[in-house]
Each structure stands twice: as C-alpha cells, then as structure tokens.
Amino acid sequence: MKRMVTLMRRAILIPRPEVALSPWPHPAFSPNRTPAPPFTGYQARYLAAKQGKPPHGKGKKFHPKPTKTEKLEKQEVEIKQHMTVSELARAMNKDIDHVYEALLNTEVDIDDLEPDAYLEEKWIKEVVKRSGMKYKYARLAEVKVRENKDAQRQPPGDPAKLVSRPPVVTIMGHVDHGKTTLLDSLRKTQVAAMEAGGITQHIGAFLVQLPSGEKITFLDTPGHAAFSAMRARGALVTDIVILVVAADDGVMNQTIESIQHAKTAKVPIILAVNKCDKPQADPKRVKEQLLAHDIVCEEYGGDVQAIHVSALKGDNLMELAEATVTLAEVLELKADPSCLVEGTVVESRTDKGKGPVTTAVIQRGTIRRGATLVAGKTWAKVRFLFDQNDQLMSEAGPGSPVQIVGWKELPSAGEEILEVESEQRAREVVEWRAYAEEQDKLKEEQQAIEVKTREHQESYRRERESLAHLSWRQRKAAMYRANKHRMSQRPSEKTESDQLTMPLIIKGDVDGSVEAILNILESYDAHHQCQMDIVHFGVGDISENDINMAETFSGVIYGFNVEANKPIQQMAAKKSVPVKLHKVIYKLIDDLKEELSSKLAPIIQEKVIGEASVLAMFTVTVGKKKVPVAGCRVQKGHLDKKMKFRLTRGRDVVWEGSLTALKHHKDDVQSVKTGMECGLCLDEDVEFKPGDDIVCYEDSEVQQKISWDPGF
C-alpha cells in the first residue's frame, strides 16, 4: 500500500508526456508537499503499460485512447429526412446496390424498393452504420410557406352591368339517333356526311342565328359509348340540354347516360323525338320509356317540352328552336361583358400552321387579341381568334364559341380559362399550380409508402414470430436460407420477367379523342394474359420522336384521326415499328384487341376425327415376336393411320400414341370409315379388353383471344 501511494505521488509530481496532470482530490497528496526522491525505473514501467496488459497482473485491462495517427477517420455522410435510395447512394459515394445489400435481413422489402423510393430515417441511419460510416444531418434551408398565387374566379358582377347572352345548348343522345343531322339542318351544313363512320367523334361548338334574330350556341357531343367524358364535359358547360331520341329506336344506353349527365349538372332538358317521318316511328312509346328515368313530358303533367322533329326533312325545327329560346328567356341568362374573361375549354388540338388551338365557350367578359389567359398549367397570349368557320374574329363575348390561338402548350379539354393582368402574372399562376400539383403528388406517394411499409413490417413481424423458438444462430441460418435468392444477384442485375407486354403510343387529333381512348384502355383487365403499358400519348400527327420511342420500347403506335407523312412511314418501316391509323374509334379498339391476341401463344386444341370400340383381342406372330391386335368397329367418323390415337377404359386413359399397323380384313389400309371393322396394332404392348374405346384425334394450334371486353 505504501509503495502504491508513492507511485501515485510521483505520477502526479513528475510531468510525463504520456499523462496529463490534474490536481489530486485527497489532502494527503497535496502538490505542496516536498517531492520524494526520483524513482524513474518503476515509475516508467507503470506509465508505459502495454495495451491489454493489466498493471502488476491485477485489475482490468488498460485501454489507452488511440493516437490520432492510429485512428481511422470515418466518412461523414450528410443525411436528411425523406431521402430516396439513389440520393442516399450518392451521399455515401456508393452505387445503389450497396444500399440494397445493407438493407438485407431488415424489415425493408428490397424487392419492392425502387431507386426513387423514399426511406425512413431509421433505415437511412442503419445503412450508414452498416457501411462503417457516420452520419450528420444536413443543414436545412429555411422553408418558407409559399403564398398562394393561383388565379381565382371573380365574384358576381354589378347587376346593372349584366346583359343578355346567347344560351349554350348541348345536343345529347344515343349514337346514330340524328344529333349531328339535326344540327346540320339548323345550320344548313353537311357535317354528318363528312364524319368518319357517320358518327360524331368530337365535341363541336357552333353559333346558330335563327331567322328571328336570336342566337344560340350549340355543342354537339358524340353518342358513342367511348365518349362518355366528352358528354359529361358538354353537360357541365351548358345551360340547356336537348335530348335527341329516335322515334323508331327508343331509349338506349347512351340516352340514359345523357340524362344522368344532365341531372348531375342540374340542367333543364328539352326532348327532341327525331325520325318521326319513318313508318315505324312511335313517339308515344319513347315518352313512356322516359318516364322510368324521371323525364316527364308536359302532356303527362311534367315540365319537359317534347318536340316531334325530322332532322332529315327539316320538320318542326323552328318549333324546337323557339322552345329553346323560350326556356332561355325563363332562365334569364345574363353576363358581364366588361369584366375579365372566364370560359371553358371544350376541345383542344394541334394545328400544323397555328400550333396549339382550343375551342372554348366564353362565360363572362369579352376576349380580344392580346389578352393573357391561363388554363390548367399553361397560359396564352392570344394571337388570333377564329369562329367555327375559321373566319378571323376581333372579339368574342359571353355565350360565344371561339377558337383561341397562342397557347404555349396544349391545355386539356374541360380546363377553366381565366384572364390575368400580365404575362408575369400568368407565369406565377402556372408555376404555383405546378408546385401545388407536385406537393399533392408527394403526399399521395408518402401515404402509399407508409401503407406499404406497414404491410411489410407486419409480414416481417410474423416471420420473426415464427422463428422465435430458435436460437439466434438457428434464426440467422433460417433467415439466410429464406433470403438466399435475393443475394444471388444484385437488384440492379435482376432479369426481366417472362410476362408478355405490349407498349403502346397513342396519338389523337384532339385532346378529347385521346382522353376517350385512354378511358377505354383503363378498363383493360387482361394483364394476366398480356401486360399493356402506355408509354406515351399526345395530340398531333405521328412524329419522328414517336417512332424512336416505339423502337426503344418495341411498341406499337396507334393514331386516331391523325396522319403519318411519307418520310415518317418510311422511317417506321425501316425500324420495323407498326403504325396503325384509324378514323373510327371502335375499329381502333378492335385492331388493338387483335394485336393483343397475336401476342398470346397459341393453344393446342384436340379435334376428334373418329371413334371405335374394341370387339376382341388376338395375337399375331411377326418374326419371332407375338404382337397383340385389337379387332375394332368404327362407331363414328373415321380412323386415319397418320393421326394420333388414344385407348380409354371407362374414364381412364390406358395408352396414347400412334399405330404401327391398320388392316381391313388382310389388307393394309390408310383409313377406315364408319361401320367398318378393322384390326390395329399399337406402338406399345398394351393388353386390350372388349369394350375399350379407341379415339383417333389430331392436335391443332388455335390462336388465343384476349379476354378484355371494352364494353362495345
């Protein structure tokens, strides 16, 4: 004990480079005491004790701190919340596979983890730790709440400034019930004769001036089942709906759908019973059918006007127009022509000479050249205004249809048009809308990630519970065996599956047509047969970019009411890219179904050629071998030696193969017909029994059909 105290005293009083001096708390070892004589030998051995060697063979191991030269500097990784896999890999200066491998045997499901998927904070830290690095949080920039810069509709104007406007009337009904012909008769044009397949496939806006001087803006909507979204859009921007029903056909599917759209938009209906000039016309039956859908005509005590017309002959068209004008007067349709413009995009398309063009209906204000408009995530400086006849207009007031040229990009049909003060303000609105959409998308993705994480954590918990009775070593071995297939190859080296896929590129003449096709394709439910991927869609003619994209994805280009010029066709042929152009939508869908069916492998279908029953069995000697022979009678069809045969006994299949001999009496024959007796030898030794059945059949390849039914 005395020696230890002495050593302690000397360790304090004699400065050494290895040990930092500090005051000793006990008064007996005060530094004011007289220093003892030096005892360097023993003291030096104690202070320079080697790592891992206990002093004097007693106590715990002594672990001095490593010097700076001995330390290995760990790489620092800046992390933040909501990092993606690729962002974390870049921050660590590693490839993406390193992150995947660091997450093996954790709760994270790496099979569903894409490079752009977000990781939770704890897994970000875990990856860094497993990689032998240390993390630090990145300095967060101060996030300011962005001010809402969106453009808004104006409040109702001063009643003193309101003036009467033309009513917006939408003509709706079932396909081929005469809607466009009715509008042609009112406009004195021949639109229906020029339409592909004789059916309307776009939504059109037209201003019609009656002989009495009143003006009516008509919207002609498609009646085909594929264009439900167009009909809904037409009902939302209209004041009055004229429901056209053929007197010889009655209420059909799209008639009912049109009624529902009108009720949803809370728009009054006028009934036009068309084709009343036909011998089989029955207007009364039409009105009675409509009672089941709450359309009660005036003669049945309701408030719906019913006009019997013949669009082809022009009968009672003025009565229909007068009924429309009368109803518009009752509705007191007025608007302020002096305020900022408000309207709705009815249709949009890309014109070769004009660029993006929209057909719109103005609801408030007066649009003029030079006005700055915003619609969706694009804006326009109005260059030109055209009417439905492509004649230049100087301005268009409330209730008028107009074609607007000057859009930076093509807005979607149905978008709201708002006028703003300047181009700078328009850019602000567009930027804000893009930002708001991005934030909404991030929230949706985060919610989907959280749901997926909870599901995976639950499955991981169940897996761990099933291994809870094992030791940790057995548990590790079991988890290794379960995850061995994941380790066999890196995630980035995963091979493509054998799933059949058909990439599609869709091009249409107007936005509404593309929308209709995409709505149909959303009903595709045969992914188990062939996966259908829409890699691109747009408005306009087939371009070089479309061909290159189709070549990259090995896809097919479908064009609706668009063209592919000769250089584009030659380029497509050179690159073996199928380009399919159609002008009628149901023909496009039929072609698409055939293309999908052609992707499927043919199935083997068995065709029975003949059946025979075994009457007796006997043997014949061929060389030194006895061969069993079945004596049979053909019951149905015929037996052909070249075809395949099957021997059945009851419900059991005894043998399948081919014949080595087929004889009628003593003659070798190629085939035996119904009612004839024959003897046959099989290519295997099989024991026949009376009553066995012999079936002659052939296998033929039959092309599969895709099971998708688009509904028309």
UniProtKB/TrEMBL annotation:
Primary residence? mitochondrion
Q: Which residues cross the membrane?
A: none
> What Gene3D superfamilies is this protein classified in?
P-loop containing nucleotide triphosphate hydrolases, Translation factors, Translation initiation factor IF- 2, domain 3
> Coiled coil where?
none
Q: Name one GO cellular component term.
A: mitochondrion
- Pfam families assigned: EF-G_D2, GTP_EFTU, IF-2
Domain Tr-type G intervals: 164-334
Where it sits in the cell: the answer is:
Mitochondrion
Q: Which UniProt keywords apply?
A: GTP-binding, Initiation factor, Mitochondrion, Nucleotide-binding, Protein biosynthesis, Transit peptide
Q: Signal: is it a keyword of this entry?
A: no
Q: Name one GO molecular function term.
A: GTPase activity
Task of the protein: One of the essential components for the initiation of protein synthesis. Protects formylmethionyl-tRNA from spontaneous hydrolysis and promotes its binding to the 30S ribosomal subunits. Also involved in the hydrolysis of GTP during the formation of the 70S ribosomal complex.
UniProt similarity note: Belongs to the TRAFAC class translation factor GTPase superfamily. Classic translation factor GTPase family. IF-2 subfamily.
| Protein name, UniProt field | Translation initiation factor IF-2, mitochondrial
What species was this sequence derived from?
Answer: Clupea harengus
Upper taxonomic classification of the species?
Answer: Eukaryota, Metazoa, Chordata, Craniata, Vertebrata
Gene designation per UniProt? mtif2
